Amino acid sequence: MLLLNAHAPVATEDAASAAPPRAGPVVFWRSILFDVVMAVHVCLTALLAGPVVVFMPRRRALAVGKWWARTTLTLLRAIVGLEVEVRGRENIPQGAAVVAAKHQSALETFALTPELPDPAFVLKRELTIIPFFGWFLRGLDMIAINRAAGGEALVQMLEQAGVAARAGRQIVIFPEGTRLPVGAPARYRLGVVHLYDRLKLPCVPVAVDTGVFWPRDGLRKRRGRTVVQFLKPIPADLPRDVFEKTLRERIESASAALAREAQGSSSEAPAQASDSRA
User: Fold this and answer.
1) 4-266 CATH, one of 1.10.1740, 2.60.120, 3.40.1130, 3.30.70
2) Pairing mode, if any, of strands 222-230 and 23-27?
3) pTM, rounded to two decimals
4) pLDDT for residue 62 is more than 70
């Protein structure tokens, strides 16, 4: 199993300054090779499974999706030298819940999919109309919304999320709506607050330091060990403003601590890694 089983506590500044860095050098050519191999892997999976999963029971389609995520992580480790450690598995919900994850990289999708029992990701509808790959997503019954629809997009999300919650699934949302680099000011949107308020479900925050290793542009990945950490669930009965403040504080403080730990530094500013052309 690629994902390491760890139940370590949230990283602290003292621990970050004492421990060696988890982030290695940038491996430019290996990053390019991985992107090429991953593109081929995605295309082959979509071509072979896309037309079939539409007619599969969703549970079988989900098994294919989890296999794809795990094999992608295996390729990442073999080619780039980057592995994923998952912390806080005791906090992973087994039934219906909102899962709100920090979004720094494409890596979060691959890392979260195998860990959650039955995830329903909130994603933009445009992805579902891509030939083969979009068919694959539709077979998984993800929560696809039309961002251009304004207020109607929120209605679409809440309706689809309600169906997923009644089926006992985990609704996965990236509260900031887009990938942001490590250290960028947090910009939380109201979608996660509406989900929490409407569904009356506990919310599991997820902290990451993936942006240290796989930045938004994706071309300069680092060797090392990145962490995805499931934090203590937020109960379902908090007022909206208290929930939003609690969610933001937990995700941002834990993600910042993980980034410092990854770089072996107690400094607030991300350090620059050495560049290897391997």
Assistant:
1) 3.40.1130
2) antiparallel
3) 0.86
4) yes
